[in-house]
């Protein structure tokens, strides 16, 4: 994340509750973004750190209260906690099985394992996929999903970025507010779950970031990160002007 984008996100978070939902682990996302003003959901929403609301912790057996790096009380929600040992095993196996494929990178994102093949010669893509499929044969409780030049191994639970959006809105006490308009910006195939939740519930707008037209559940689109940054700046300007 560029310094300019980080500054834009920080200004947005000053005026609106803001969260980042990523396929990477919660810790990696926080280190990458580095803004304590945000809420973070890693591993496609399977590792959520949000505000403390007693009702939320009581309603979800995988939620508990802890403290963040600033010593602030937060709710940590991990619906796939029981899969941690299994994910660790698969990660080690994939590192070993792909070690001879040049450019392949296996990443442990706590509740999912990502196998990146962006830097792999196209002729070797089938070999990467075969490695993943061979290992998954022994793990029927895990499933394979596809992102941008990445294969992701995830638990077979009914949870995704869309569920994470719903959870965060509930945690923030915003799910039943008529004067709240959630906006979700994303550029990955896995973001479609969040776009779909907002569209089907008629509760907000998804914005797809893509340089080319794509079929999507998003209502709107932006072509590149620079346009996202300008959009965020416009939100802040609107908020300031409406407060006058």
UniProtKB/TrEMBL annotation:
A single BP term in Gene Ontology: trehalose biosynthetic process
Functional pathway: Glycan biosynthesis; trehalose biosynthesis
Pfam families the record matches: Trehalose_PPase
Cofactor(s), names only, from the UniProt record: a divalent metal cation
GO molecular function: trehalose-phosphatase activity
InterPro entries: HAD-like_sf, HAD-SF_hydro_IIB, HAD_sf, OTSB-like, Trehalose_PPase
Keyword annotations of the record: Hydrolase, Stress response
Signal peptide extent: none
Catalytic activity: alpha,alpha-trehalose 6-phosphate + H2O = alpha,alpha-trehalose + phosphate
Enzyme Commission number(s): 3.1.3.12
Membership in a protein family: Belongs to the trehalose phosphatase family.
NCBIfam families noted in UniProt: HAD-SF-IIB, T6PP
Protein role: Removes the phosphate from trehalose 6-phosphate to produce free trehalose. Trehalose accumulation in plant may improve abiotic stress tolerance.
Protein name: Trehalose 6-phosphate phosphatase
Record organism: Prunus yedoensis var. nudiflora
